[in-house]
Fold this protein.
Amino acid sequence: MLSTDELTDAQWQIADAIARQLVIEGTDVNELRKAATYLRDQQDEAGAGKKFFDYLKTLVRHGNAIGHSKRTLGYYQSLDAVCSQYLSSYQEDAPRMLYILSWAARLVLYYDKGVPTGEIAQPTVQSEREAEIQAVTQANKFEVGQELEATVTTIKGNKVTYEILGSIKLTQKEPKLASKLRLGQNINVRIENLRNGNSIKKIKTIY
């Protein structure tokens, strides 16, 4: 079995999901490698992630003309769909996206050997940011009425973004408070509502 020591949980889940999807759809791994090569050549350029997704869509549009077999267009469509589904949150980080694609290509070869791919479940996290938030949420038992310290990170009109426990960011309308708060200000807040039992949905500042 391939080692995953160098993969974060988020990267592993996404690479694994991409590989399983491509194997189930019968996509030629060589087309995945070509796409990865294009990204490798572009990764240091400005907007490399967007160029990569534009490249995939160009392949789909012109697949019938540039494809080397009747199945090539299907390969392009599969690559475009799976990359858009799983890698869109990495568009601004081309090197990391390339890293994930490289592992996905290795896993395709592994699964192609006859290893059951099973039913594909959605990754529980789509980015490192979501993984960090998930870890903080799982490590804490939040309750309605609980008081916490928060930092004001953004103020736009009457919308204020608070950062809690260094990871959780919550934006909500504060028509009465927005003009009184300042960026970087530390304040105490109280949990007013939870989502799914333990995810903070709404808070109220305490004076």
